Amino acid sequence: MAKKEALTEIQITLNVIGGKWKPLILHYLEKTGTKRYSEILRYLDTAPKKTLTSQLRELEADHIIKRTVIPTVPVQVEYSITNHGRSLFPILDVMCAWGYLNEGDYKLKHPTCEYNDQTRRIKEKRLHDLYHQFEADHIGDWFPNNDEGTNR
Predict the structure, then answer these.
(1) How far, in Å, CA of 16 to CA of 36, rounded?
(2) 66, 79 in Cβ contact below 8 A?
(3) What are the tens digits of pLDDT across the range 93-115?
């Protein structure tokens, strides 16, 4: 099988978890375990069926989730996260923590990050440490006098 092309490693990650619903699907399955299609659709609330089906197929093709057909009448389909998919949990955790710490004007429908004052401090410290580790790994990569700190 021919390898797919990607511009950068970030594009590979975005190809796998990019899209409005993929991270939410993975986070939901991480928190609640194996779910049927209808349960995922109900959780996502406003996800179009066609889009959800497409994103579930993409996650399955990338071996992130497993699709199990249950031979009943009517046929039922369940989705669960694979071991390979579990490798994305640290990324999802950082995304959840960042969202929690920056929720500001948002009203959450499904607050699943389960944080309180103690865990908030832990997540703040983890994000702070992660940021400083990133900076340490990239010493000399940044242009001097760059207020934005985003150009290399």
Answers:
(1) 21
(2) yes
(3) 888 888 888 888 888 887 777 67
